[in-house]
Amino acid sequence: MNLFKAICCCLLFGVLHEKALAQVLTIEECFTLARQNYPLIKQYDLIVRSSRYSVENAGKLYLPQLTVSGQASYQSQTINFGDVLPSLPGLTPPDLSKDQYKIQAEITQQIYDGGVSRYQKESSKANEAMQQQQLEVNLYAIKDRVTQLYFSILLMEAQLKQNKLRKTDLQSAADKAQAALANGIAYRSNVDELKAEIINTDMAATEFSANRKAYMKMLAVFINQPLSDSTTLTYPAPVAPQEGIHRPEITYYDIQKKAFDVQEKQLTSNYLPKLNAFLQGAYGRPTLNIVDNKFGPWWIGGVRLNWSLGSLYSLKNNRQQLDINRQNLDISKETFLFNTNLSLRQQNQDIQKYAALMEQDDDAITLRSSVRKSAQAQLDNGVITVHEYISQLNAENLAKQSRILHSIQLLQAQYNYKNTSGN
Q1: What is the pLDDT of residue 19?
Q2: Helices and strands: H and E segment counts in the chain
Q3: Please, which residues have CB within 8 angstroms of residue 81's CB and are 6 or more apart in sequence?
Q4: SS3 state at 302
Q5: For 190-247, what is each residue's pLDDT tens digit?
Q6: Could you give the CA distance from residue 417 to residue 243 in angstroms, rounded to a whole number?
Q7: What pLDDT is attached to residue 384?
Q8: What is the pLDDT of residues 118-159, one digit of tens each?
Q9: What is the DSSP letter of 310?
Q10: What is the pLDDT of residues 139-150, one digit of tens each?
Q11: What pLDDT was estimated at residue 36?
């Protein structure tokens, strides 16, 4: 009983292990995995963190600012109070020292900054959105590379299946020829020619398998997943071309334009007045009471207004520069849309072409299969040679291979159109 349980457990483990190895992937899953694995994706967190620090720094402009300064000086002359005060009996005018000292601390509190901190926050957020969207543009390009690998693998697998069917037909004919040879009604050359053709199918299978394995290894690197010979890639569902372009580049251009709007607001804030409150505390000689030539403390508090109009000199040129940047951006967007529409037209033509070719392939396969079946019957009756039969079999196989190629190319053209349009 224990032995029976152990055997059952081993069989169950083997079945589960085999199912685990039988990995099935779709093209959309490959897109997702490739995006997650691509090194650029790590920049997302860096962009968010950098923007957060910039926004926090902009918000701290309204925190109280502390400034500490010190000064020790020696001057060639001081006020002579004897020249400005009348001489009075018993009164000696004060004499100020030429060496003077001061250490001072000042606390300022921003009251109004003309919108500098607000627009600085907006600028940081706009830059974050622009960097993230640029990253989206770079990551989107992975789709094309994954699509090429995915459909290349599907093509190799389809050709392997067709090659296997061809080998089955050749093996059946070789078995019949071998039996006829044993009965003395066929030539050895007939059997050898069929066996040679079977070897050709084995060589083709080796080449198809090697190509599939190479493409599978490259795909495994992109998606960072171990892929084996048992991995199955599902056939994608056909997708109809959709109107419109929804690529991440379009959003990137729109975000850039918003960033220019923020920069124009910053130009306005540069020439607006700034108002802050301040409190100074100091210790030194002389104090605010300059007639007392002694060390002592003092303080001053008040409101300070700063209004620098120097930025008005370059305001017009800076605005014109922003207008030029906007125009360049519009031209870049227009150029991108023009080139993308050209690509979509070509890809749409490819879709129509491969669809038409597949209809012609079906007609050709029907005719070639009929001829091959007739040739097989004629070969069985000794009417035609093995060489003639192989020619008809190869013609049928070529028609089927062409049909396989065009069906894969049609699917790939549909997904190329989907990737190019961003729909």
Answers
A1: 39
A2: 10, 6
A3: 93, 94, 95, 291
A4: strand
A5: 888 889 989 999 999 999 999 999 999 999 988 888 888 888 889 888 888 888 899 9
A6: 10
A7: 84
A8: 888 888 888 888 888 988 888 888 888 899 899 999 999 988
A9: T
A10: 888 888 899 899
A11: 87
Number of other CB atoms surrounding residue 184 within 10 Å: 6
Local structure of 360: helix, strand or coil: helix
Q: Which of 100, 91, 95, 90 is nearest to 80 (CA)?
A: 95
* Weakly modelled stretches of the chain, pLDDT under 50: 4, 8, 11-21
What DSSP designation does 80 have?
B
User: In angstroms, rounded to a whole number, what is the distance separating the alpha carbons of residues 113 and 306?
Assistant: 10
CB atoms within 10 A of CB 338: 10
How far is Cα 114 from Cα 266, in angstroms, rounded to an integer? 9
pLDDT at residue number 316: 87
Element (H, E) at 119: helix 116-140
| φ and ψ of 240, to 5 deg | -85, 140
Q: Which two tokens stand for residue 349?
A: 């033509």
Phi then psi for residue 287, to 5 deg, are -90, -170
Contacts of 79 (CB under 8 A, 6+ apart): 96, 290
Other CB atoms within a 10 A radius of the CB of residue 61 amount to 14
CA distance 423 to 410: 18
Which CA distances in Å does 420 have to 86, 134, 338, 423? 94, 17, 12, 8
Helix (H) or strand (E) run with residue 401 in it: helix 386-421
Distance of CA 244 to the CA centre of its chain: 21
Q: Is 235 helix (H, G, I), strand (E, B) or coil?
A: coil
Question: What Å distances lie between residue 78 and 83, 95, 101, 238, CA to CA?
Answer: 12, 8, 14, 94
Going along the chain from its start, the domains and CATH numbers come out as: 63-112+273-306 (2.20.200.10), 115-272+310-423 (1.20.1600.10)
Is 177 strand, coil or helix? helix
Evaluated on CA atoms 285, 290, 293, 296, the torsion sign reads: negative
* Angle CA 21–23–29, to nearest 5: 150
Q: Which stretch of DSSP H or E encloses residue 345?
A: helix 312-380
Q: Where are the beta strands (DSSP E) in 183-267?
A: 232-233
Other Cβ atoms less than 10 A from the Cβ of 233: the count is 23
Kindly report the pTM of this predicted structure.
0.76
Encoded tokens for 289: 């009471």
Instruction: Report the C-alpha gap between 258 and 270 in whole angstroms.
Output: 19
Which run of H or of E encompasses 217?
Answer: helix 188-223
Say how many Å lie between the first and final Cα of the chain, rounded: 61
